[in-house]
Amino acid sequence: MVTASLVKELREKTGAGMLDCKKALEKNDGNIEKAADWLREKGISKAAKKADRIAAEGTAAIMENDEKAVIIEVNSETDFVAKNEEFKSLIKTLLEKIINSDAKNLEEVLKLETDEGNVENLMISKTAKIGEKLSFRRVEVVTKEADENFGSYIHMGGRIAVLTVLKGANSEVAKEVAMHAAAMRPTHVSINDVPVELVEKEREVLKAEAMNEGKPEDIALKMVEGRINKFYKEICLEEQPFVKDGDITVKDYVKSNDGEIKTMIRFEVGEGIEKRNENFADEVMSQINK
What we know:
single chain; alpha+beta; Helicase, Ruva Protein, domain 3; Tetrahydropterin Synthase, Chain A; three-stranded antiparallel beta sheet; 10 strands; 48% helix; 22% strand; disordered C terminus
């Protein structure tokens, strides 16, 4: 019988999760040593020891067919691993599995079956094999209608990936928009997509700035409206000056090609993840001196 105390003991011994420990004990008739070996063979205990490490490097990638496109971000601890063939093969496997499935979000993707178990277990085994913490951070699955076009662009070998969907126009125009988004970092497609609370927060900050400059409140409010328009140009794809022709906006460029922007998804590897600020030489020396 597998007791809670046995699970606790195995967890402390291996660092693996409670459910994995329980399963290991059940598979090995409650024998702690055999269960620990089982976890090692599966790569679970080795991966668990890396769980608290920061994975902020990695790759953003895209795959598309005539009807569907998939964009993912998978993280590693170092850029070196992101460039090796084992990691690249993992990315290809993930993209192919997702695009050929009905999965629509990360939770569903992690349950997809591969030759090495489901995707969640695949990530664990690859973490053990490659020797660095790997993390499947995010995925978006997009479909399109017959009169719509995908545009995709990968920058710096996977540091940035952008996927766009345009109604009308063509795939070349859609790719131009994706390239623009890679460079200019919009967070929303149009003004209507910006959350009201975000705009109101920006108004408050801009008003305070104007008041601190010594402007009367009525003048400050007028200044806020002008600065809000600038704010929209910074974060809204449609409002930004087009990188290849600053005299027109991205919206104007697409419209001149009989198109309309429907979707824009931009993944930049590691964005929003607090990265370690460590000296690599010091880290190596710390390992040597242990």
